[in-house]
Amino acid sequence: MKKLTSAFFIILILSSCATPTVVNVVGPTDGSMTCNQLDTQIAIANKYADDARKEKDMGTGTNVSALLFWLPGLWATHKNVEEAVDAANRRAEHLQNLKNKKNCP
Asked: Is the Cβ–Cβ distance between 46 and 92 less than 8 Å?
């Protein structure tokens, strides 16, 4: 029972360190969006990428704590940042391609 509880807390700590949101590249309603909606969604995707990049900064509370107490948590956060930025960039690219197909200005 002690090992199970310890494993649970280790997984909880490790997963809580990776904070940036990883967005879905393709949404179910992307094809039916208007040009303005696509612009809005591109801006949101870019904001997710910017927010994720900020999480990589060593000055955040999560990263300082991870550096002091749980080094694998710092690695998990940095790995998650890379995934989040990549997904947000691919989503913005996907939405831009839809705008081009719809001949949006």
From this structure: yes
What residues contact residue 38 under an 8 Å CB cut-off, 6+ apart? 95, 98, 99, 102, 104
Q: Could you give the 3-state DSSP secondary structure of residue 57? A: coil
* Interatomic CA distance for residues 103 and 86, integer angstroms: 26
Q: Where are the alpha helices (DSSP H) in the chain?
A: 2-17, 35-55, 61-69, 71-101
Q: Identify the CA nearest to 38 among candidates 103, 105, 101, 98.
A: 98
Question: For residue 46, what pLDDT band results from cuts at 50, 70 and 90?
Answer: very high
pLDDT exceeds cutoff 70 at 89? yes
* Contact between residue 17 and residue 77 where contact means Cβ atoms under 8 Å apart: yes
pLDDT for the residue 51:
86
